């Protein structure tokens, strides 16, 4: 058995701390700004501890005070928040592999916008030397703007008409597939057919039990006289292949507007669409920034029972998350759950979520309804290791609507079956 180590100042270092120290060193390399240590003999720097491990000194006395390692340090919490904010949008759920880092995605997005700007400005007339030429250009620009506004208004009217028709066309009136309960109660069958478990986390049959997941009564408890559903966006800046930079109506926020419209006008729910921006400038802390905003909205509207964080995924440029529902092309959606547990660290106490079972129940009931009524509409539920602000409300859904390779219309079309699924689950007859 390896001997314990006594450093200067009388601090005892146990041999079993090696794994923790290596973890600290690795995190220190990648997140040096978050790894500062307090001054004084009671605190050890990483260098002190590694020095002690590589130059072990025999313990002189047989009895020493126990030394408690600081597992939940501030830097590890910050690291978790950064990973939580960045990784869920750049994972290909089909393979579980990271496809695009946040930095690469931002560079790609920036490059695309810069390219578009250059193309739009190529061939423009330089500043006129004569006043008449400048006036002519101004008049021409104003006419073009008026014509563009008229065209956009006409297109919007056509889109609204088409969407109204699609509401009826894309709705399923009866089950297409039936899943026997005995199959669903088989944990292996459940995992293989309904879930994608990321390598960062683990789950077992005690959490994924079909009887327990389907046994949760998720029906709304009150009528639409007060708000029932909250839709918001941790990542409000996410757009699609043909999104117009600066036009929120063509981003995931616009998709949220359409979902709100369907839920209120088609199904009679009372819905709040919160459009706070939490990923502008500092995406790495979007979840921690969104938390207080979410708390405030819920405090003002205590009757809200369902919280939906609407996103769009990030995948390889060659990947197209498209399906057809009753002949209408639309983006696939994916339900996403955080388990507050990583494979390396186990349960993360400072990311405690008392509603994990409820979160899992609503995503599974939505997934099963989708598989029964709209086969192929959803990807498998993605399970990840962190929390993603799913601890504020039992019936919380994090939904990825397509990816950056989908068009805005494909994402909009997907809201028709999604709204129907929400209605089926939240008003289910028992």
TrEMBL record:
Family annotation (InterPro entries): Spore_II_P
Name of this chain's protein: Stage II sporulation protein P
Record region (Disordered): 104-152
Pfam families noted in UniProt: SpoIIP (PF07454)
Source species: Roseburia hominis (strain DSM 16839 / JCM 17582 / NCIMB 14029 / A2-183)
Domain of life: Bacteria
Biased composition, class Low complexity, residue ranges: 127-152
């Amino acid at each position: 058995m390896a001997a314990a180590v006594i450093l200067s100042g009388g601090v005892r270092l146990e041999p079993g701390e090696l794994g923790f120290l290596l973890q600290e060193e690795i995190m220190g390399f990648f997140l040096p700004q978050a790894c500062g240590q307090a001054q004084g003999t009671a605190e050890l720097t990483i260098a002190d501890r590694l020095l002690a491990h590589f130059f072990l000194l025999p313990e002189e006395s047989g009895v020493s005070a126990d030394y408690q390692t600081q597992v939940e340090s501030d830097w590890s919490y910050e690291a978790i928040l950064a990973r939580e904010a960045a990784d869920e949008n750049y994972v290909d759920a089909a393979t579980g592999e990271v496809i695009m880092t946040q930095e690469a995605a931002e560079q790609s997005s920036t490059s695309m916008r810069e390219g578009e700007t250059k193309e739009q400005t190529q061939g423009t007339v330089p500043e006129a030397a004569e006043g008449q030429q400048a006036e002519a250009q101004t008049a021409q620009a104003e006419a073009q703007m008026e014509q563009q506004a008229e065209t956009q208004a006409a297109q919007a009217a056509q889109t609204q008409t088409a969407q109204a028709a699609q509401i009826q066309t894309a709705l399923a009136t009866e089950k297409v597939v039936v899943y026997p309960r005995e199959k669903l109660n088989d944990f292996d069958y459940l995992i293989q057919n309904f879930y994608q478990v990321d390598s960062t986390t683990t789950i077992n049959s005690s959490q994924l039990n079909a009887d327990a997941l389907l046994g949760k009564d998720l029906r709304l408890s009150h009528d639409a006289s007060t708000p029932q559903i909250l839709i918001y966006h941790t990542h409000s800046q996410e757009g699609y292949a043909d999104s117009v930079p600066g036009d929120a109506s063509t981003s995931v926020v616009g998709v949220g507007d359409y979902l709100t419209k369907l839920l209120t006008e088609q199904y009679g729910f009372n819905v709040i669409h919160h459009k706070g921006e939490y990923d502008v400038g500092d995406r790495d802390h979007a979840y921690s920034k969104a938390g207080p905003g979410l708390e405030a909205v819920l405090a003002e509207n205590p009757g809200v029972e369902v919280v939906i964080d609407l996103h769009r995924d990030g995948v390889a440029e060659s990947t197209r998350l498209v399906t057809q529902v009753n002949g209408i092309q639309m983006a696939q959606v994916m339900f996403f759950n955080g388990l507050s547990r990583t494979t390396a660290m186990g349960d993360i106490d400072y990311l405690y979520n008392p509603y994990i079972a409820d979160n899992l129940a609503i995503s599974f009931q939505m997934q099963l309804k989708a598989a029964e009524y709209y086969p192929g509409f959803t990807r498998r539920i993605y399970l990840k290791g962190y929390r993603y602000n799913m601890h504020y409300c039992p019936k919380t859904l994090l939904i990825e609507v397509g990816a950056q390779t989908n068009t805005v219309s494909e994402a909009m079309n997907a809201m028709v079956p999604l709204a129907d699924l929400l209605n089926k689950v939240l008003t289910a007859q028992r």
